[in-house]
Amino acid sequence: MLFLKEHLHNVYYNWTIGLNHSVQNNEPDRRIFDRFNGNQVLFIINYFGQSLGKLTVNDGRKIEKLISTQLPGEIKSELSVFNWLRGMYLYYSN
Fold first, then answer.
1. For 56-81, how does the pLDDT look when each residue is reduced to its tens digit (9 = 90+)?
2. How far apart are CA 78 and CA 35, in angstroms?
3. C-beta of residue 36 within 8 angstroms of C-beta of residue 13
4. What residues have CB less than 8 Å from 76, skipping those under 6 apart?
5. Rounded distance, CA 15 to CA 41, Å?
6. Which domain of life does the UniProt lineage start with (predicted)?
7. Pairwise CA distance, residues 63 & 61, whole Å
């Protein structure tokens, strides 16, 4: 399932597409991640869901909430966000 803009819980996102946006890529890399950019949040949610092999609207909203409330400020790149989410998923799934 693809997690869409309509599924996001928060409405305060910026929707501009900049040069550092992952729409140009197929996977997370060292590009700067902006937790306030809806396109980047959607990209990370969907990529993470693909890596798990499943994604529901509820799963996507949980990931969105983790990003908006618990993502440490020192995590700056898409790849770092993805790796952090993997750690959080392993922590909460046990």
1. 999 999 999 999 999 999 999 999 99
2. 10
3. yes
4. 32, 33
5. 10
6. Bacteria
7. 5
H/E stretch holding 62 reads helix 57-70
Unique residue bearing structure tokens 């803009």: 5
Please tell me the distance from the alpha carbon of residue 30 to that of residue 79, in angstroms, as a whole number.
6
- The residue whose two tokens read 């983790």 is 66
Rounded to 10°, the helix 38-52/57-70 angle is 120
**Tokens, residue 74:** 């020192």
Per-domain boundaries in the chain: 5-93
Name the DSSP letter for residue 19. Answer: T
Model pTM score: 0.88
Asked if residues 9 and 65 have their Cβ atoms less than 8 Å apart, the reply is yes
